[in-house]
Design goal:
25% of the residues lie in helices and 18% in strands. It is an alpha+beta fold.
Amino acid sequence: MDNISQVPNDLKQLRACMICSLIKTYAQFKAFGCSNCEEFLHMKSDDNKIEDCTSSTFEGTITLLDPDASWVARWQKISGTFALITGKITTIGKAYCKGIYAISVNGRPPPEIIQDMASANKRYRSRAQ
């Protein structure tokens, strides 16, 4: 997926992923899924998952250009993929993609999504403040 698919192409119908806080339009989530979470959320082409796992209510934005070196990404806990469930923060896999992220996201994914994440050794971290 090219970097342009990560950036919202319209200011209408913006939504933020409740798992990683990436902001895209509804149409982009439908066409591409979440660039960080697609491997386990499977939002692409699934209106119900988009409604359940993204929120149109979020505050603030961050433009992330260098996920590995950004202190803001570390502060927002978007500098690496999800922490292992060990009580200790450990980044695994690749860093989050470049893009626009919400500072806080209102809402919570359904319990079955959080359980699926735990089964895959991925910890859900609320993006609400």
